[in-house]
Amino acid sequence: MGDFQPSALTSYIEASKPMGVLPQDFHHHALAVQVLHNLQYQHDWTELRIHTQASLSGGPLPKHLVSGLPPHRIYVHPDEQIEMLKQSVQEKDVPSEREWVLPTHLRETWSLRKFAEVFDGIDPVPPAVDRASEEKRPFRAGKGGIGSRRGGKRLMLATVGDDSTVVYYVVHDGIVKPRQN
């Protein structure tokens, strides 16, 4: 038997531990770092960041959140989908949007109340990492038009399994009109 060596991911999580993290909060931080690592290295997301404070109230979030910019659009609102079809715009030609990601473990139990607490603490769009990168993006905020964010608040639920597999689901705050096929 040789010496035990921690995995690269375990070393990455330990190296990213911020000063002053309480032992009871380290699990949330480690889960967020693991999901951030997966988004960055497996899914090519950029401008990633971990959030511990609610963007609306400034108070602590019930769980650490990750935000970032995916390489392509994650969600297209049904009304925007209709406009894109009318104008013959391909989904790949629409710029991606910054997204919230909620890291969870498969064994965690979630209720509507817990989701509501998370949604109550966030803006519809995560804050940009820096103004310069956001000003270069062809994203148009506001209602209407292809490329503008619609449909209220949403996040990607990142569920981590015991084998470190991460599965992502889009979760909306409220009811959303179904997509047209």
Quick overview of this protein structure:
With 181 residues, this protein is an alpha+beta fold.
Q: What does the model show?
A:
The protein has helices spanning 8-15, 23-42, 78-86, 112-120, 131-136; strands at residues 46-53, 60-69, 99-105, 154-160, 166-172. Helix 1 (8-15) crosses helix 2 (23-42). It has 5 helices and 5 strands, in the order ααββαβααββ. The radius of gyration is 18 Å and the shape is globular. It has a 5-stranded mixed β-sheet with strand order 1-2-3-4-5, sandwiched between helices. A hairpin with a 5-residue loop joins strand 4 and strand 5 (166-172). The termini are far apart. With 181 residues, the chain is α+β, with helices and mostly antiparallel strands. The longest helix has 20 residues, at 23-42.
How would the blueprint of this fold be written?
Layout: H1 8-15, H2 23-42, E1 46-53, E2 60-69, H3 78-86, E3 99-105, H4 112-120, H5 131-136, E4 154-160, E5 166-172
Helix pairs in contact: 1-2
Instruction: Give the radius of gyration.
Output: 18 Å
Strand element count: 5
Report the order of strands and helices: HHEEHEHHEE
Query: How many DSSP H or I helices?
Result: 5
Feature tags:
181 residues, alpha+beta, five-stranded mixed sheet, 5 helices, 22% strand, globular
